[in-house]
Amino acid sequence: MKTQEFIESGILEAHLLGLTNQEEQTQVRQMVESDQMLEEYVVELEAGINQYFEKESVAPPEAVREVVRLRSTRDKKARQEFSNAENPDRQYLDVEVNDTHIKVHKFWRPAFIAVFILSKIFLIAGLYYYFKTVSQEEELQRLKLQVEQTK
Amino acid sequence: MNELERISNAAGPQPILKPERNLSSLEVYDQFGAMAYGIVLQIIPQPHLAQEVLVSVFASPLLQSCNSYPFSYAACIIKLARAKAVEAKKKLTSLTALEEDNAPFSGAPTPQVIFDLAFRRGLTPDEVAVKLNITKSEVLRSFHDFFKTNGNA
C-alpha cells in the first residue's frame, strides 16, 4: 500500500485511538518503521489528536489528585515490599520472637555427644582413682599397724 | 490482550518514535489528568463515575507501560482513558440493561457520527460498520476525515 493511500485509509487515526486489532497494529508499526514520511506524518497526527482532546479537556476536582497520590503511594509501597520479598540479598530484621526454643547448627550434636562421653570417662576415672587412693591409704595404715606390732 | 497490556508484559514492540521516559503516576496526572477526564466524561457523562474511572486510569499498572509506548505519552493516555471508560460503561450498561447501543441507527453516517459510535460509545470499527451498514474501510476512512475536518491533521 502506498504512503498516501495508507494515510487516507484512516488506520493511523484508528491505531492512535486504540481502535485497531492486533493485525492492524502490526501493519501500522511495520509501515511507520519503514517509511520516514509516514513517521513524520504520525508525529503531526499525534499532535493534532492531542490538540483535539486538549480542547475537550476538563479540570478534575482537586480531591481526585489526592486520591491518585494516595493510591500511587500505596502501590509503590506494595511494590517495594514485594521486591524486598523477592530480593535474596535482603537484610534480616530484628524481630523479637516469643519462643522458648532455640535452633543451633547441626555440628553441635556430635559436639554435645563428645562432651557427654568425655564427662562420663572423667567421672569414671575420677571415681576409680578416688577409691584406689582410699584403699591405698587403708592399706598403708594397715601396714603401719603391722610394723608397729612387730616392733 | 490489548497493545498496552502487551507492552506491559514486555512482549510488545520497542519504541520507534519516542525515547523511553519514566514519569510517576502523579506527574502523568498533573500533565494529562484534565485531558483524560475530558475523554472519560465524553464516554461516561456522570461526574462521580467518571472520577472513579479517572482514578483507575492513573492507578492502573498499565500506566507504566506508557513509559515505553512507541508513540507519544498523550496518545497512550488517550488509549488507556478510553479503554477504562468503555470497560466501566460496559459494566454499567450490563447492570442497567440499557439497549442504547442495540437501537437501530437512523441518519447519515457522517465522520462525527462514526467517531462518536466508535470512540464515545465504545463500538469496534467492525460493529460500527455493521450498525451503519457500511464497510470497515469506510469507517476507518471516516476517522481520517474527522480529524481532517477538525483541522487537526
Brief descriptors of the model:
heterodimer, A: about 150 residues, mainly alpha, 2 domains, 6 helices, about 0% strand, B: about 150 residues, Rna Polymerase Sigma Factor, Chain: A, 7 helices, about 60% helix, globular
Could you state the CATH homologous superfamily of the largest domain in chain B? RNA polymerase sigma factor, region 2, helix turn helix motif
> Could you state the oligomeric state of the chains shown?
heterodimer
Estimated radius of gyration of chain A: 46 Å
**Number of discrete helical segments of chain B:** 7
What is the tally of beta strands of chain A?
0
Measured by DSSP, the beta-strand proportion of chain A falls in under 5%
The CATH architecture name of the largest domain in chain B reads Orthogonal Bundle
Strand and helix map with partners:
The complex is a heterodimer of chains A (151) and B (153).
Chain A (H helix, E strand, L loop, with lengths): L2 H6 L2 H6 L5 H13 L1 H20 L6 H25 L21 H43 L1
Helix pairs in contact in A: 3-4
Chain B lengths: L2 H6 L16 H19 L3 H13 L13 H24 L14 H10 L4 H8 L3 H14 L4
Helix pairs in contact in B: 2-3, 2-4, 3-4, 5-7, 6-7
Structure report:
The complex is a heterodimer of chains A (151) and B (153). Chain A contains six helices and no strands. Chain A is mainly α and 151 residues long. Chain A folds into two domains: 3-68; 111-151. The longest helix of chain A has 43 residues, at 108-150. The mean pLDDT of chain A is 86. Chain B has two domains: 3-96, RNA polymerase sigma factor, region 2, helix turn helix motif (Rna Polymerase Sigma Factor, Chain: A, Orthogonal Bundle), CATH 1.10.1740; 100-149, no CATH class. Chain B has seven helices and no strands. With 153 residues, chain B is mainly alpha-helical. Chain B is globular, with a radius of gyration of 16 Å. The longest helix of chain B is centred in the middle third of the chain and has 24 residues, at 73-96. The model of chain B is unreliable at 10-17 (pLDDT under 50). Chain B has helices at residues 3-8, 25-43, 47-59, 73-96, 111-120, 125-132, 136-149. Classes of the chains: A mainly alpha (151), B mainly alpha (153). The interface between A and B is large, with 46 and 50 residues.
